[in-house]
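Job type: complex structure
Entries:
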Amino acid sequence: VDYLRNSQSATADDIAKIANVSRVAVSRAFNPSASIKPEKRALILKLAQELNYVPNHAARSLVTKRSHLVGVIVPDVCSPWESQEIDALTTSLQSEGFATLLFKTRADKQIDPQLLSYISGFNPDSVIVFVENVRRETLAKVIGRAVPIYVEYDNQTPLANDEGAGMLYDRLNICQRQGMEQAVALLHGFDCKRIAFLDGHPRSLAARERKRALSQIMAGRGMAPPIIVPGDFTYDSAHAAILSQFRVDNGVDAIFAANDVSAFGAIDALRYSLGLRVPKDVKVIGFDNITQAKWRAYDLTTVKVDLRERVDALIRLILRRLKTPDAPILIESLSTSLVVRGSVG
Amino acid sequence: VDYLRNSQSATADDIAKIANVSRVAVSRAFNPSASIKPEKRALILKLAQELNYVPNHAARSLVTKRSHLVGVIVPDVCSPWESQEIDALTTSLQSEGFATLLFKTRADKQIDPQLLSYISGFNPDSVIVFVENVRRETLAKVIGRAVPIYVEYDNQTPLANDEGAGMLYDRLNICQRQGMEQAVALLHGFDCKRIAFLDGHPRSLAARERKRALSQIMAGRGMAPPIIVPGDFTYDSAHAAILSQFRVDNGVDAIFAANDVSAFGAIDALRYSLGLRVPKDVKVIGFDNITQAKWRAYDLTTVKVDLRERVDALIRLILRRLKTPDAPILIESLSTSLVVRGSVG
C-alpha cells in the first residue's frame, strides 16, 4: 500500500495503453452514467486501482468546461423535508455522474452576493435554488454559466418578457392546489366550521401560495375564511402559536398546517397541553408527507408531493439544459394529492 | 444585466488594478475566512459584481493544490442524526472557506472502489467517513492526498503499528460509555430488572460498541444481561421488533434503543399497539439527542452527543491536517451525557 502512495500516479494514457482501450473509454469507465461494456469497465477500474490512477475532475473541468458539480442552496439541511429531498437528489445525481455541492443561506434565509460569488467560484454545472428570496437577475449575473433551477408553486405562466428577456429560468412547478382541494373537501365533509391555517415562514413563497390557495378554495365552497395563525415551519413555533390561539379562541375545529413538522407541533400542543383529542376534537392536516407523517404518534393526514417524481423532474431539467444550453425555457409540473390518515376522521 | 452576461468577464488582475489593491487581496476578499479589512472586502466584492468577475476554484486548485472541497460520505442524508450533523458541518465549513461535497454509499451501506475513485476525482482536500465498513487501506490508497477522518467509539488506543505504518488516520473518538453509565444507573435506580437493548444496523460499529458497553456496565452492577432485540436504526424496524419481542415476552420493563429514531418506533409500538404506558409500564432511553427527542409525543430520555462540539472537533481536525500535513496522528475526544426527560421516571 505504501509504495503505491509514494510512487508516481499513473495517467489516463498509461491505463489506456495497458488495457488496450481508448482514452475516452478510460474516462467513461469512471462515469457511472456513461455507457460502456461491463467487462471493459471492470478491467479499467481494476487496472486503475492497481496503478493508483485517479481521474481529476478539476483538471478535466478546465478542458470540458464541465465540473460535474451541482450546487444546492438550502436554508436548512436538517429540516426533514429538505434532508429527504437532498438525500434522493444526491443518489440520482451520483448515478448520473454528478456530485452534490451543498451551500447554506444565512440564518435569516437570505442569500447575499458574497455567497453567490463564493458558489460560482466552484464552477457548478447547475444550481438548484430551494430558497425563494433571491432575485433572478442577481442570481443570473453571479452564477455565470450555471443554469439555475427554480421551484415554483401553482404557476404555469412563462415569465413576462421584460423580466426574462434573454435569460433562461427552468422551473419545477408544484401544483399544490390539487391536493389542497381534496383536503378542504374532506374537512368540509366532516362539517368543520372554524378552520385555522398554521402559517409557514414569512419569507416562504410556498407558504404564501398555500395560504392564498386555501382561502380561495374555502371561499369557493362558501366557507368562512381561515383563521391565520403565525408560524415559521418549525415544531416549536407551531406548538407555541397553537397554545396562544386556543387561549383566546378554543372554537377552532380543524388546523391546516403549512408543513408536516408544524402539524406535529400543533398535535402535541392540542394533546399534551390543551387536553384535546385529535381527530375527535380538532382535525389536523399537514403538507409534504415526510417520512415522519406516518409515525403512529402523529398518523398525519397530509398533502403529498411525491419525492421521487420531484427529484426525477429536477434531474431531467438539469440534464436537458446541460445537453442543450440554448433550449427554450423548460417547465416541469408536479401534481399533489391528499394522503388520508388518522389525524382526520 | 444582459450586456454583462454577454461581455467578457473581468480577471482578478483587472479588479486589483481598478481597486488599487494586490491580487492576493482580491483572492482573500472571496474567502470568507481570510482576514481582510471590511471596507477593502466590500470594495472588491462591489467591483467584482459590477465587472462580472468570479473567482474560479477549479483553475485555482490546480495551482494551489487546494480544492476547498470536503467530501462527506454517508449512507443516508435523511436520517435525522446525519442531516443535523451535515447541516452544522456545512455551516462551519462554509465559514472556513470550504464547501461540502456529499456522497452516498450504496443502499447496503457499502462503499465500493468505484465510488472511492469517483470521489477522489473531485480532488477533495479532506474526506469525512461516517461509514465504518470501509477498510482504511482501501480508502488511503484511493483517496490520494485527502486525509480521511474517522469517527470511532470508546477507543483511545492509537492504531497498531502494522496497520497504521506510514499512514495517518485522524480520528474523532466518541466516549459513549460515560452517558451510557448514567443511563444504566438511572434504570437501576428505578429497579428495572428486564432491560432490552434495541440494536442498530448490523454493520454499524457504533451500535456494536453500544451493545458491548451496555452489557459490560450492567454486568458491573450485577444486573442480568440485556435482552437483545434486532434492529437497524429505523422507526419501522424498531416498531416491528418490539411487537415481536412483547409477543413472546411481555416482562421487559425498560428498553435501551441504539438511537433516538428507533426509540420513537419502540414508544409508538408500546403505546398504540400494545396498550402499554411509557414510562409507567416500560421505560425507554435513546441515543443521540436529536431535535425530535424533545417533541412532546416522545419526550425522550437519551444519551447526548453534543452536535456543536462534534462538528467543531471535526473542523479542527480538518484544518490542522491541511495546515500541517506531516503532523502526528490527531485524536479528538468527545464526552457524552444523559439528558433525562419524561420517557423514564
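Summary: Chain A has 14 helices and eleven strands. The longest helix of chain A spans residues 307-323.
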